[in-house]
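User: Teach me something about this protein's shape.
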Amino acid sequence: MKKIVCILSFVPAVMWMVLIFSFSAAPAVESSETSDGISYKIVKVMAGLPFLDWEEEELEEKAETLHVPIRKAAHFSEYALLAVLWVVPLGCMTKANKKRMAAALLLSIMYAASDEIHQLFVPGRDGNVKDVLIDSTGAGFGILVWRFLFHNFSCRLRAKNSMRT
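Assistant: First, the predicted structure itself:
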């Protein structure tokens, strides 16, 4: 039973990698339209604030300025999540936190690099070393957040258990 649970714990990381791959497989025009749509929705929400009175032309201009930051934030966050999703199943292979965090980070960085290579073959897209660096930074951030949360949770759990005895 434990072996099945261990094997199944790899599913979320693999599914997330498939999702990242599908985003990367979208041609440049489609990918750009998606980013533009998200940028516009964010600006539209901001425009609903009572102290902002933007016309449609201003909305579109502000959405355009958000395009690149939105894309880079997506890179950062998708790899932060990927790294965290790798930490859990790697715990089946080693209980040493540092080893599994390092392995999760390495797997995420390798996937980021392979994803950029994949984009070389997608119409209108290109591989970008800067994106690998952003992805890697996101993965490192995800590991740090996981470590902080895990450490706090395990310390609280140990304190709670020691109070019971």
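Now, about its shape. The longest helix spans residues 129-164. The radius of gyration is 20 Å. If you'd like, I can walk through any region in more detail.
User: That's plenty for now, thanks!
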